[in-house]
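User: quick one - fold this with glycyl-adenosine-5'-phosphate bound?
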Amino acid sequence: MATLPAPVTMDKLVSLCKRRGFVFQSSEIYGGFNGVWDHGPLGAELRNNIKRAWWEDYVYKRTDIVGLDSAILANPAVWRASGHLENFTDPLVECRNCHNRFRADQIDLTRNCTVCGKFDWTDIKQFNTMFKTFVGPVEEDASVAYLRPETCQAIFVNFRLVQGAMRKKLPFGIAQIGKAFRNEITTGNFIFRLRELEQMELEYFVRPDQADAAFEELLGINVEWLVNHGVRRSKLDLYEHPDGARAHYSRRTVDIMYDFPFGKSELQGVANRGDFDLTQHAKASGRDLDYFDDETKEKVTPYVIEPSIGVDRASLVFMLEAYYEEADKEGVRTVMRFHPRLAPVKAAVLPLVKKDPALVALSHEVFASLRGDMLVLYDESGAVGRRYRRQDEIGTPFCITVDSQTLEDRTVTIRERDTMEQVRFSMDGIRDEIERRLRLPWLRPD
Ligand code: GAP
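Assistant: Sure. Structure tokens for the protein plus glycyl-adenosine-5'-phosphate:
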């Protein structure tokens, strides 16, 4: 069956996301809220699966990485010491005529305003993109606090506490998944650039002389993680940030770029932050954040290698990579070929007819046996072909059909999403069989 040549467009994906409950505009009934999106039932599931896969691979499968779950708010001293109060800025320019604001590095200031067509720019000023709030009942300068713009600072601030509690020796890492907030001047491209986002960050602490090797190794591991979960290698690229254009903390940064429908853009950053953060926090807090080597009796200020990826951006890429359209005899079959580990719904139970009470009872028995550790759907409405298509469109790897033969021999059919092959299997062993299939290595059909 030929795959249609038409590539996935953002419009197609956005429409599927809304229709099938992946992503909704925040506060949609009030006209939305710029740069903020809500995740529907299937989007919540996809994100949980991405986060679980990341955590299992980086924390559970390794002995040298531990987890942390820190607060979104922190003492503002953290952001002074980290350099965010001074440096976490974007260049802002305003059109004096229509008062629209733009990131000065994203538009051509020798040309007229793209909104109103006039040429009347203000000077560029640096705009700090941290969200401010007040802690306690009084709105005064002394009570200002910030929503974290990246999750990693709490890792640095807690470095000695984590290292001591878990008795880790260099090299070791601390991983964290959590919300971050950025008051981006311009947002857009769906869930690509957000004001409320979630990050999966690993801070890997090494002796300074091991930093270059650790950087190369972690860069490779992170690219492979994406490829192993269904991202085509041909859609990825590496971008080395040149000297003078890196973030204030970085000694080296390589972005893992993805070829989005709107152009190549950063999916993930990998940075060598050197000892910048630990040194800054030690200086500002007056506390010793060095690592003490019990064997050699030496003190080391570790360097840190940081792979950092947004959950939202990762889910956008996994959805774009999953989206297929195929011609079939009824028109176009849309299939979300998610890696089974990431697929929001793992299986669907479909009774062939809904009017036969014995068959329906068996279907409910199969459904009950599968539920508990994974999301399983039950669908009895419409022709079975239609129901298969509905499941294909949300990427359900397995459909289990209960038919008249089930009444005779307690077997059901398992229909596989990518090949559409069907095999009969005993309904009594169905849960183990689906779990076994979900764990099998998976390769993109193309
Ligand atoms: N701690 C390092 C750090 O935060 P970053 O390059 O600013 O580095 C890391 O962000 C990752 O977080 C990006 O590669 C991207 O996946 C995600 N990210 C950053 N800003 C984002 C935004 N406004 N919306 C969605 N994702 C974002």
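One thing worth noting: Residues 41-60 form the longest helix (20 residues).
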